Amino acid sequence: MTNMPDLSKPMIGWLVLKDKDTADTAMLYDTGERFELSIPFSSLKEGRGKWFNRGVFPLKEDEESQIPYSMRFIYNNETFILIDCHYAGMTSSFSFGLGPGTGKIVPTYVVYGGRTDEYDQINGMRTNCADMVQWFNLPSTECRSTLNDVGRCESVDVHSEVKDPLPIDKEVGLYVRPTFNVTMSPMKNAVISRQNVDIETNIDDVEEWSKHLEIHREVLDLISITSWMSEGFTDMTVICKSDPIKTEAGTVIDDRWAPVFSYKPLIDRKGNEYCPKNFLFDFSDIGSEGIRTWRKLNTDCGQGMSVLRHLDQNHEHMAIETLTMLAGMALECVGWYIVQSEQQTERMKKRSGKQQAGPYSKMLDAIIEKFEDNFPFIDADKWKMDMRNTYMGDKHPDAQSSDFQTMYEVTMEGMIILRLWVGLQLGASIGQMRERLNNDKIGKSIRYLLKE
Q1: 80 vs 259: CA distance, rounded Å
Q2: 80: helix, strand or coil
Q3: pLDDT of 63-97, one tens digit each?
Q4: Burial of 129 (C-beta count, 10 Å sphere; 0-12/13-18/19+)
Q5: Is residue 294 located within the same domain as residue 376?
Q6: Given this model, what pLDDT does residue 428 score?
Q7: Using a CB cutoff of 8 Å and minimum separation of 24, what contacts does 16-24 make?
Q8: In what residue span(s) does the ApeA N-terminal domain sit (predicted)?
């Protein structure tokens, strides 16, 4: 995206609140860890100082003492809508807050270019990450070259075109949108055509930011799980249909998709360099139905999928004992999900009249059975025994723990089994996934354990 403001340079402008005719001086600044809005005040007893009083003086709790959820910041002719604003401290030139000072507010989201104060809730969101083009394989650009008789290139035709979005889940307004953008290099000696794939949610009624973000995060996490390399957002825009692009005469021209800055989630527009990945499965293997099934799985087997997603995002920073515990927990949750959904009563036990999961080994049996003759490792019984002993050894202080090599191997195997099981639920071919294990990030580290 071009012509984006540089928030790392402090901007001194005007703070405007909803339904207020006045404006206050303020400074917006990207610290590198968060966005801060600094607001000077003359006293904690009046004006904007009330926002930062925090019990220094006994004041009546009213609307003027509460930090608004959203506010508008204007710098020259640029507008920023600050969403989900929180108190972040204050400094005063006198003891106990007596006299002038400066208060700090931290917004979760900064919407660039919005012209109204109605972005508390939004109609839509678009996001992308560097892997989406490869994972979805929905190109919007073609490159054709013409060679002469000796094989030299005589002409190159690069053709990019807008394509219709692909509906994924109309119930929540979820689409996949192939896009492209063309830019000229600063030296004017190169034209860069870059194709992207956006995840889009777009609905008629406004909804909380968190509801849109949850759907986008689910799709992004699915892509990350297939490569076992955690991905983050490289762009985000939102739409509020009450704030379209208009002419000076007030005629509506188009929807306004406004860029968003945020650290929660982190939007790293500099991190969009593409790096080829090896996916255990991709969109061509599961289709739109597979993504809908994944979203349902996050509800029906919520605890297990939540742990798996956490493992994918944080495994590089965890000790092997922590990985073992979390992988073991996810396996237990998935096993119990299978037992419950299929009413395998022989693998249940009752306590106080309620059905509960049976022994851990029976939960592993429920998972192993789903692979039939396609279990990916040489010895399923040995893995089950070692996984059970390792997990219980880490879980209980009075149990004997496994040696490091065994712990590493069964944990890596367990995480592969979890990912393969997810792929099976979404419609991917177990044969193709097993073939790809040799180049998988985890699989290639334990090739000697893979069954041919």
Answers
A1: 10
A2: strand
A3: 667 899 999 999 998 999 999 999 998 887 665 55
A4: buried
A5: yes
A6: 97
A7: 16/71, 16/72, 16/73, 16/74, 17/68, 17/71, 17/72, 17/117, 18/68, 18/70, 18/71, 18/117, 23/74, 24/48
A8: 27-289
Q: Residue for token digits 């930062």?
A: 52
Rounded-to-integer distance, Cα 241 and Cα 359, Å: 53
CA distance linking residue 4 with residue 362, whole number of Å: 55
| One domain for residues 243 and 345 | no
What is d(CA 361, CA 358) in angstroms, rounded to the nearest whole number? Answer: 8
Range of the domain at 230: 121-262
3-state secondary structure of 5: coil
Q: Where are the alpha helices (DSSP H) in 201-319?
A: 209-227, 283-300, 302-314
Co-location of 63 and 185 in the same domain: no
pLDDT at 95: 58
Domains identified in the chain, total number: 3
> Domain check: are 142 and 242 in the same one?
yes
- Residue 127 burial (CB < 10 Å; 0-12/13-18/19+)? buried
Residue where the block lists tokens 């605890």: 303
Q: Are residues 340 and 420 in the same domain?
A: yes
| 31 vs 94, residue with greater confidence | 31
Give a yes or no: residue 327 inside a domain. yes
Residue 259 bridge partners (DSSP): 237
Distance CA 232, CA 230 (A): 7
Polymer length in residues for the chain: 452
The residues pairing with 348 across neighbouring beta strands, listed in sequence order, are: 357
DSSP-assigned letters across all residues of 97-132:
G-S-EEEEEEEEEEEES--SS-TTEEEEEEEE-TTH
User: pTM for this one?
Assistant: 0.90
Could you give the angle at the alpha carbon of 280 between the alpha carbons of 278 and 286, nearest 5°? 120
State how far the alpha carbon of 312 is from the alpha carbons of 72, 130, 148, 161, in Å: 37, 17, 49, 35
